[in-house]
Amino acid sequence: MTSSLPPQQQDDHLWLEDIDGAAQLDWARQENAKTVQACAQSPAFKALEQGILEVLDSDDRIPMVRKIGAGYYNFWRDKAHPKGLWRRTTLDEYRKLQPAWETVIDLDALAAADKENWVWHGADCLEPDYKRCLISLSRGGADADVVREFDLESRQFVEGGFTLPEAKNHVAWKDIDHLYVATDFGPGSMTSSSYPRIVKEWQRGTPLASAITVYEGAPEDMSVSAYRDNTPGFERDFVSRQIDFYESETWLRGKDGQLVKIDVPDDSNTEITREWMLIEPREDWSVGGRTYKSGSLLAAKFDDYMAGRRELTVLFEPDDTTALDSHSWTRHHLILNVMHDVVNKLEVLTPQAGAWKRESLGGAPALSTIAAGGIDENESNDYFLTVSGFLQPTTLYIGTIGQGEPEVLKDSPGFFDASRYGVSQHFATSKDGTRVPYFEIAAKDLVANGQNPTLQYAYGGFEISLQPSYSGSIGRAWLDKGGVYVIANIRGGGEYGPRWHQAALQENRLRTCEDFAAVSEDLFARNITSPAHLGAMGGSNGGLLMGNMLTLYPQLYGAIVSEVALLDMRRYTHLSAGASWIAEYGDPDQPEEWAWIQTFSPYENAKAGQSYPPALFTTSTHDDRVGPVHARKMHAKLVALGHDSSFYENMEGGHSAASDNKESAFMDALGYAYLWQHIGKPT
Question: What's the pLDDT at 3?
Answer without folding.
Answer: 42
